[in-house]
Amino acid sequence: MFVDLFFLFAIILLAVISYFTGPPPGIPPGRWGIPFIGCLPKSSETVFQHIENLRKEYGDIFHVKMGSRLFVVLSEYNIVKTAFTNPNLQGRPDFYSLGVYRNFENKGLVFSEGSKWHNVRRFTLRHLRDFGMGKSSMDVTVQDEAKALVMDLEKNCEDPIELTLSLNCAVINVLWQLVAGCRYDVTDERMTYILKLTNDDFNDIQGNIMILDMFPALIPLVPRFIKDKYMKLDTMEAGVAIGREFYMEIIQEHQSTLDPENPRDYIDTFLMEINAHQDDPDSDYTLENLLVSLDDLFAAGSETSSSTLRWFVLYMALNPHIQEKVQRIIDEVVPQDRLPSIDDRDSLQYLEAVIHEVHRKSSLVAFGVYHRATQTTKINNYKIPKDTIVMQNTAHIHNDKAFWEKPDEFYPEHFIGENGRCLTKKDGFLPFSIGRRACLGETLARITLFIFAAALLQKFKISPPDGEILTTEPIDNPLLNQVKPYKIVLTKRF
């Protein structure tokens, strides 16, 4: 009798919990899952497969509850375009893993929100442009870094090699000269170490610590030794400390040599703004905000473009007929005694289309950088409750047959218009996201990718090692579609 009553009570309790924790009325269709747990991926499926299976069942806008977090997934380009211009969808989720890197404060450029994000982003864009971002004056800087990378790669021609962190270093040097007024040799040991830590950070935030992102109620309950041993919290914190030491050395050097009449770079202008607002306790311009902003710029600037270039080299090795076509065009346009420049872009439209197709096929940030609803709002007449996490299903949109003639193929002609020119803006294309929180470094990234890709194809034939089969299957990470490590053979063309 007692057991029967106990089970009856348990059933009633679960029914009550399910009722009060069920999906709010008016939200998009989807999967709520079981109380407290939600609808997590099965052990046999990746996050990408989980989302794609739900999309097939519920359509281009659906909800899924994972842990205690409510997600709304947007899998159609026009829905994303509308949603990400909505002022109520410009927040960021308060994920524990990301909070570690900003001292759990609303600071920086990528994961901040509200007026603090808006003010510092606007300041950063203005001053990076003042120092050359997106301007033709950057051409020589990017060429110099491409040349340094080519010279480093020439040391190992004819042998199977992986693209090392010298690629990341050459890429970050372009941005870092605007930010900090300095560059590093592509083989600099300390910079290589910092870049490795940055890469490790991207892996760590996609690891077991995501459990605390999905179940924030567990944060105060999970013992510290569990967080360290199984979630690498101690490793993450150590990485943050090393990064901050690196940035502080640069800041202190700038402080000691600052000339307010002649600011040299972004750090100088930020320090001047700190000094101008030092009596304002609510100022957005603080040393802490500068540190987090530098970390955001460094991480995004080094990892995203270098990962895209790794995908580019892989696709060139896998598509020799496309590689040869680009090289023929480069040879017709650019003399062998100089590297391609941004002035050659008009004559190298096919290369531009190839780079765009690499963006499409790789879909590097597969779900974009997550947005959060700061107020209850509507998308396509569906209710989006406050604090819902909204994500763009970039990988699906980049394979949507409504926009792409041959979505399963590597087909640069997707981006060639009737006039033979590259379609730099195209519906269904979201490599840098869209709307108010689109990537602030897009113009610099486009220039860097173009010159680096052109330089690599001008100087080298890219081939798979004999007998080795290359794959475009990405690393099984829930956030970034990073390419699996691979080896290629570079052969000097001249």
From TrEMBL:
Signal sequence bounds: 1-18
Binding of heme, residues: 439
Descriptive protein name: Cytochrome P450
Keywords: Heme, Iron, Metal-binding, Monooxygenase, Oxidoreductase, Signal
GO CC terms, sorted: cytoplasm
Cofactor(s) in the UniProt record: heme
GO MF term list: heme binding; iron ion binding; oxidoreductase activity, acting on paired donors, with incorporation or reduction of molecular oxygen, reduced flavin or flavoprotein as one donor, and incorporation of one atom of oxygen; steroid hydroxylase activity
Pfam family, one: p450
Keyword Flavoprotein part of the UniProt annotation: no
Top-rank taxon, per record: Eukaryota
GO biological process, one term: organic acid metabolic process
Family: Belongs to the cytochrome P450 family.
